[in-house]
Design a protein that fits this description.
The chain contains 13 helices and 9 strands. The longest helix has 20 residues. Helices cover about 45% and strands about 15% of the residues. The termini are far apart. The strands form 2 sheets. The chain has a 7-stranded mixed beta sheet with strand order 3-2-1-4-7-6-8, sandwiched between helices. The chain has a two-stranded antiparallel ribbon with strand order 5-9.
Amino acid sequence: MTLLRWYFAIDSPGSTGPVGDHARLAVLSARMVGGLDPFMLYHGAEGEFCAWMRAQGVTIIHAEPPALDAMNAAHAAGHFTAHSMGHWLRLAIPHIDHDAALALYTDCDVVFLRSPRVSQFTPTFFAAAPEFAPDRWNYFNSGVMLLNLPAMRASAPALENYLRAHLADPALGATLDDQTLLNAAYRNHWDRLNPLYNWKPYWGFAPDAALLHFHGPKLAVIDAICADQWDWNDKVAASIGALFDANRTSYQIWLSQLGDQLQTIDFPTALSLQATASAIATYARTTPPRAHDLGFTEFRMFPD
């Protein structure tokens, strides 16, 4: 069986925190479902995290994003913040992989539920799914992308020029992130990916989902909320927390199922997921639902 190349990306600071924990979970789930050849793009000094990844059969590629010099210059000028260099590394995949025609990119905070069956689908450039709702296609969430590598490589110079132009403009660079860049640069030139390949826990339980994406609330966030250690007064934190709090039952079901499925792959991780599911159950019994403003989930990047 031909394995599908799966890429994820992370930098050294991210590897030591919650994002690194999610990356480990993603790799364990990939082992569970099979059919994937894992590659990790990495930026920074190696440590225990990289050793663990190699022990799991992950190929590590040290990389940097295109236009890194322009990013550093814009950052020094005070009108750009990369937030996480790992996110930008996805732009390097077409430059690195000259062998495969098709590859899957995901953020670190995903869990594979079954082996992806996408080999018969070749997108024009890439395929992606919506962000906050499975039926809103105004823009895409770049956390899961099926990449046509030759096409992406051919369009890479134009994308880099687009990126450099935005970084050079203080008004544009201040709000620039990788997802915004890709949506703007490839507007009307991306294909629709079945949302079951980028399913969010706050969408409810879907037995046919192939890939679960912890978009918004990560596991560490859920643990903090359940322990009453979340800052609901912070606007951004409140929005992230709202996605979990308004859908707590869905999160409990998903984490309980993941804990059951991973027992034969990594028992300590399975126990940790079950513990979080139990904490959610306790939280649901003891904490009345909050009133949330979920208006941000109606965001439209483009007018049409």
